[in-house]
Amino acid sequence: MNPAQDLVSIAKRNLPKGSKLSVPNGPVGVDSVIHVDLDGDENEEALVLYRSIGNENQVGAFALEKGSNGWSKIFITKGAGTEIDWAYAADIMGDERKEILLGWQTEGSAENVLEIYFWKNDKLAKLKELTYNEIEAIEIDDEEKTRLAIWKRDMADAYKVDLLTWKGDSVVADINYYPSYFQEVIAYYQRRISEVPDAAYYWYYLADAHLKAGLPEQAIHAIDKGLSLKSVVPTKGYFQQLRIQAEKMLPKERFPRVITRKDTRKYWSIEEVLVIQKVKEAASKYWYVMSGGKYPEGTIEKVTVNNNEYRYLGKDLDTHAELVNYLSSSFTSSAIDSFMQKKIIFEFFGRLIQPNSDGGSLFNYERAEVVQKKDKGNEMEIDLKVPVGDTNSFEFVHISFQKAENGWRIFSEPGTF
Q1: CA neighbours closer than 13 Å in the CB half-sphere of residue 417
Q2: pLDDT digits (tens, 9 = 90+) for 79-121
Q3: Distance between CA atoms of 28 and 68, rounded to whole angstroms?
Q4: What is this structure's pTM?
Q5: CATH architecture, domain 133-265
Q6: Which CATH number applies to 269-417?
Q7: Is the dihedral of CA 408, 139, 165, 179 positive or negative?
Q8: How far is C-alpha 252 from the geometric centre of its chain's CA atoms?
Q9: In terms of DSSP bridges, do strands 407-410 and 394-404 run parallel, antiparallel, or are they unpaired?
Q10: Using one digit for the tens of pLDDT, what is the confidence trace for 189-235?
Q11: Which of 251, 185, 241, 242 is nearest to 213 (CA)?
Q12: Per-domain boundaries in the chain
């Protein structure tokens, strides 16, 4: 049993009576047991997420620490909502220790609640509480602190967006890195506008995103477009206030004004990092299986069935249970079943065999980029741009994730990416 599976077993033994492990809605790639060093001693603790079996709306979390007498609970909280919407561990304060972030969704509430816990006086204490509808954890080049991008719904799929960082004893708007993050917000509203070009509120928030990205000329264009539409919401007054801000940012003809903000820096979403990591691991597992697995003696056993040459899988994969166990940390059970049927992997005299052929992939997932995500509740569709080898060529790959009982798993069949 590998360490991750062992820790899951330990977590299950410590569950409150009448409860089971629960996978958060996000970020995609996070499971019900999160490994994290809370106290900075370089030994990982475990954050465990659970829900009641009898009442699905009762959720909670606890942390386990390993001591001389085994594992024990050092923190437990009953969820502030009816669903675990988001859970992660990140260095929010920039003190080289990770804080616990738990997002709770309450039935009937317009917003979710994010609770942030930090290590203080040998225990976890609540640091801050925020509200949100959508959330991203953001890492920026050469910066220790994790930022939080908070999206609050205004109407339909129009959001007020802010990028927050920890400063002093609270979270504040991180205007220095607005130009980096708000490029994503601009892209979001451009996609919405391409679908519904006459919605004034999309143009309003596009203008706001351009301002926060330090692009006043583009903001004025969006403002003018929004004002030209016959709409009650937002009012002309709101557009005019944005125009005043944009005009103040415009450089003067004789004396150009220098906007004192940092240049745009590379940033990445934690969810996208987790997604690419999951895909990379899944692709590696697929090709390991296709190579036959581990042959300790270096000898491949071959067999002929119906005039076709097959080989027995290696000792670590030659039973159905072993193969499923190996792939199940990356793929759903239905994806694994479909893979075995299409790749003609079946049992022959008590051991699994497969066609005797090898292969490989030139897809370089180390340099892959997420270009689009489509959230479908318990499923997430991801489009990746994947370089081919070390060349400048690339392919677009579509992969579907599904929230399964044991965590977010790839629903796409192995070998299709």
Answers
A1: 30
A2: 988 999 999 999 999 998 999 999 999 988 899 999 999 999 9
A3: 34
A4: 0.89
A5: Alpha Horseshoe (1.25)
A6: 3.10.450.420
A7: negative
A8: 43
A9: antiparallel
A10: 999 999 999 999 999 999 999 999 999 999 999 999 999 998 889 99
A11: 185
A12: 133-265, 269-417
